[in-house]
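sorry for the late reply, my laptop died twice this morning and i had to redo everyting from scratch. anyway the thing you sent over, i finally got around to it. pasting the sequence first so we're on the same page, its 403 residues, then the predicted structure underneath. double check i copied it right bc i was rushing
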Amino acid sequence: MLMIVCDGMSDRPAKDFDRKTPLQAARKPAMDAVARHGVNGVMDVIAPGVVPGSDTAHLALFGYDPYKAYSGRGPIEAAGAGLEVRKGDVAFRCNFATVDKSMSVTDRRAGRIKSGTAELAKALSGRKIGDVQVMFKEGSEHRGVLLLRGPGLDPRVTDADPHHEGKVLESKGLVPEAEKTARVVNEFVRMSHVVLDKSPVNKDRRAEGLPPANIVLPRGAGSLGELEPMPRMYGVKCAAVAGVTLVRGICRMVGMDVLDVPGATGGLDTDYKAKGDAAMRALDSHDFVFMNVKACDVAGHDGDFRLKVQVIESIDSMLEGMLRDLHEDVVVVLTADHSTPVSVRDHSADPVPVAISGGGARIDHVKEFDEMSVASGALGRIRGKDLMPTVMGVADRAKKFGA
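ok and here's the structure:
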């Protein structure tokens, strides 16, 4: 079984491009082949009218009820960065950012810093604030993760990140039990500014006319929830190919073997062929292989229709090479985790297309893979959490219910 999730690929018709979506405008023979030789439909990844986050969306795609399984984005990011998350820990997503002398944020991404973050993270990690151990790890570009470990912590706190330029916020406990956590977060933010502002990395950045990464802004607190691992839930050995820290974290949390693929950046410069080759190799040793390709989402957030078409065609070229070497019994799933319309520049509640071919898939009349063509397919309209059970059925791996 091979599931390819094209992050944010689904879209809306664009007035300036003959009322087509990027999928309709792109040349994509491989995607169309999956649709033509399979069963098709549309999918509300969370539920009708609900805008999916990438984290909740992937939990749903793996068969979990996101309303029960989601424990906050922080622990997922921490797992993706390679930090061990334990019960009682509180984790946060973070940005390296730039503040002026009055502690006002002037750049939430520190000029989208790409180098030196490992050195900055090392200067912050391993410290203690009272009886709380601080672990900090850099992510991709300006991103990082903060993990707090100690007695009496509670994730129900507000963000220190203002989410826009302006004064750094004071974190507050939403319940009395979380007041200690808020105090630790505020102390960490203050400490991060003191330590990072005088870092040699930022001295060099200032000399080059670049904004210093002189503070860390935490947000999205969460603690580890209970998730039954996918291998136990479905009886399959699972692998994942993904470049984005968040997605890698989810895959680790649900029990997948997360593969390191050189060139898989999670951005527009990702090595599509390397990802495809890694997924094909993983099929030799795993029953289920998941692949996430992020670039469509980047183009959607940038509002760039032509770039999104280009990305779709690049993914299709990767898929074309994979399909040549796949046995017809391998079940192939092609879908998206959410819609990111170029007209919205953000996630939307629009359903996404889905096609399932191979195995015991019933072939319907759909000939092209796009948002409108698949809507008339035999799969109908499903929810994200029903996708994996459906795939297991097509692969003849579903368990019998009853006598």
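The chain has two domains: 2-71+227-394, 77-222.
thats about all i looked at so far, will dig more tmrw
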